[in-house]
Design brief:
This protein has 346 residues and is of the alpha/beta class. It binds 5-methoxybenzene-1,3-dicarboxylic acid and manganese (II) ion. The site of manganese (II) ion has 7 residues, from strand 1. The site of manganese (II) ion (MN) has 7 residues, from strand 1.
Length: 346
């Protein structure tokens, strides 16, 4: 029975007051970041011009044990895998980002220790300072016992194919800890036509941003350097499952004419070997069915995307998904247990 099946939701947004306060300062400053609109909407009613403020996501982000846990109980959601919500610490200067990542990780670890069957967590790190990030990553897994890492896409317009970030990738691979690349608004270089009609955020821009990030990494050959690195992406794979045949075909052509570096494996082989993806905010049975058929049941995990998406429809989506019961077990919890090292229950 799906009703009793263990349910681990894997892209569940969360924050701490210290990060909220620091973000409020950032959006009052001179940033040109496209994140400004939404971040002001969430954290700073005084400067909100976006309309997002009316949705009051902040209460949901800052609350763990109150409304969130109660709603989880009502719907039979066993566990949230928490992560510091976009843009994480990536809009701060390197020192502030490093400090706030450690504080968020300490706070998260405390919650997970207090509720070991209800909360697990993805640790933050500050890519602005890759060597210190690698140290914090090691602390977060070995000492705090967190379950993996969250990265909110670009950092100051730069992506993980840039070797300056590779100390963080090396750490994640060595720790056998998956990095979840979550969206934030598109970088300055990418944002042009995404700024109108509400396209900047989850409607379209987020997928363009993370999809671009992931294709850059695969095409650059990052996974020849880090063959065991695991990356998780949300939103039914940010459309990459649908595009993977063409990405693979056109990348081999780009390699043949010298426009892309030679890689040991094809793009599809990297996507199958190094990536998993979640259903967050993409409650579409046809897309789920296609994704499972195309990339395999072991690569797909369930997620809600709380509080940006409501819990109940996400549970109904998975309870009624046209899959076998053994597949539902994988989607609801077994794949999450394997990828994020969450102890299985009886
Ligand atoms: C929204 C969605 C906003 C996500 C977010 O802000 C995040 C939104 C940081 O629907 O407006 C998300 O994670 O999907
Ligand atoms: Mn999300």
């Amino acid at each position: 029975m799906a009703g009793k099946m263990r349910k681990i939701a894997t892209e569940e947004a969360w924050s701490i007051p210290e990060v909220a306060a620091a973000l409020r300062e950032v959006v009052r400053g001179p940033t040109s970041s496209l994140d400004k609109l939404l971040v002001a909407g969430i954290y700073d009613a005084a400067t909100d011009k976006s309309g997002y403020g009316t949705m009051n996501f902040l209460d949901g982000l800052l609350d763990t044990e109150d409304r969130r846990l109660k709603e989880m109980d009502e719907l039979g959601v066993d566990m949230h895998l928490l992560s510091l919500t976009a843009p994480g610490v990536q809009m701060f200067d390197a020192d502030t980002a490093t400090e706030l990542a450690a504080l968020a990780n300490d706070t998260m670890a405390e919650i997970c220790r207090k509720h070991p069957t209800r909360f697990a967590g993805l640790a933050s790190f500050a890519p602005q300072s890759p060597k210190r990030a690698a140290k914090e990553m090691e602390r977060a897994i070995r000492k705090l016992k967190l379950n993996g890492f969250i990265l909110n896409s670009h950092t100051n317009g730069e992506y993980l194919d840039d070797p300056k970030f590779w100390p963080a990738l090396e750490a994640a691979e060595a720790l056998d800890a998956c990095i979840y690349i979550h969206p934030r608004a598109a970088s300055d270089g990418l944002k042009g036509p995404l700024q109108d009609y509400g396209m900047d955020a989850a409607m379209w821009g987020y997928g363009v941003e993370v999809g671009t990030h992931v294709v850059r990494m695969m095409a650059a050959g990052v996974f020849d350097h880090f063959p065991k690195l695991k990356i998780c992406i949300g939103h039914m794979g940010e459309a990459i499952p649908f595009w993977i045949w063409r990405i693979t075909f056109m990348n081999s052509r780009a390699q043949a004419i010298g426009r892309a570096p030679k890689t040991k494996l094809t793009m599809e082989e990297y996507f199958r070997r190094n990536f998993v993806f979640t259903t967050s905010g993409a409650e579409d049975h046809a897309a789920l069915d296609y994704s499972i058929k195309r990339l395999g049941i072991d690569n797909v995990l369930w997620a809600i995307d709380y509080p940006y998406q409501p819990m109940k429809p996400a549970v109904e989506f998975m309870d009624t998904a046209p899959v076998s019961e053994s597949q539902r077990h994988k989607l609801y919890h077994e794949n999450a247990e394997r990828i994020f090292h969450i102890a299985p229950t009886g």
